């Protein structure tokens, strides 16, 4: 195909603009959300169907490729039938996953692996990483952040009390993450509670970074937020 001068110039400008904007064309995403969940908030409603012994620490939900424009590529090629038995992730990493990334819900023969497989197939396949590299990065990044300690050191603790959004924002200001709420009923009232904290991770999966804008509260309303025990 022969391109005339105008076409060549257009291609050059588009290429340059997408490079400058850091768009996701090359990789399909720009960064990850490392999604940490507060298990009590996953499990404290009647239909949650959680296993007993709900952890009292933030656990991993997943690490999701994201684009700067708000997209989230999903279900790319490379799905696995079962992460644990696939032979694609080493034992040390699987051990760390069992500790940090439990399936909180009942069901199946290997509930943890079921949850990881869902997360790999939906999100991990779009990371352009091999399963071993992806899962190792997820557990290493999660281990590098102690959200509960950070909140506690700012006197925000899981005690069923209500906290001001501004105080939560101040406590988490190294990360400027997304704080996602869900609803809980207690004593005949409905409250917003901390459900997930979504941290930003560089595209190579090697560093947790600030999300680069003010902390976003999603589904939290405008009022104070409960941190459930
Ligand atoms: P995702 O598809 O990545 O957006 O995750 C949402 C799905 O994961 C929903 O079906 C949730 O019920 C499920 N989920 C979230 N956290 C857990 C958990 N800790 N264990 C099992 N399933 C979970």
From TrEMBL:
GO MF annotation: an example: RNA binding
Keywords annotated in UniProt: Disulfide bond, Endonuclease, Hydrolase, Lyase, Nuclease, Signal
Gene Ontology biological process terms in this record: RNA catabolic process
CDD domains (alphabetical): RNase_T2_euk (cd01061)
Name of the protein: Uncharacterized protein
Highest taxon in the source lineage: Eukaryota
Organism: Linum trigynum
Keyword Endoplasmic reticulum: no
Positions annotated as active site in the UniProt record: 61, 119, 123
Similarity comment: Belongs to the RNase T2 family.
């Amino acid at each position: 195909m022969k391109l005339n001068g105008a076409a060549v110039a257009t291609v050059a400008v588009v290429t340059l603009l997408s490079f400058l904007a850091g768009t996701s064309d090359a990789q399909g995403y720009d960064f990850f959300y490392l999604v940490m969940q507060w298990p009590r908030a996953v499990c404290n409603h009647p239909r949650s169907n959680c296993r007993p012994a709900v952890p009292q620490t933030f656990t991993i939900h997943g690490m999701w490729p994201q684009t700067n424009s708000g997209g989230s590529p999903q279900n790319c090629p490379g799905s696995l039938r079962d992460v644990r038995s696939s032979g694609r992730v080493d034992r040390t990493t699987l051990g760390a996953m069992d500790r940090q990334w439990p399936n909180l819900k009942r069901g199946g023969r290997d509930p943890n692996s079921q949850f990881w497989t869902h997360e790999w197939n939906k999100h991990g396949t779009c990371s352009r990483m091999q399963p071993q590299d992806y899962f190792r990065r997820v557990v290493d990044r999660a281990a590098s952040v102690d959200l509960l300690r950070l909140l506690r050191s700012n006197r925000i603790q899981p005690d069923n009390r209500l906290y001001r959004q501004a105080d939560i924002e101040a406590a988490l200001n190294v990360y400027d993450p997304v704080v996602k709420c869900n609803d809980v009923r207690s004593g005949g009232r409905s409250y917003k509670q901390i459900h997930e904290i979504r941290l930003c991770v560089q595209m190579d999966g090697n560093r947790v970074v600030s999300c680069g804008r003010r902390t976003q509260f999603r589904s939290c309303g405008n009022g104070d937020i409960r941190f459930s025990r």
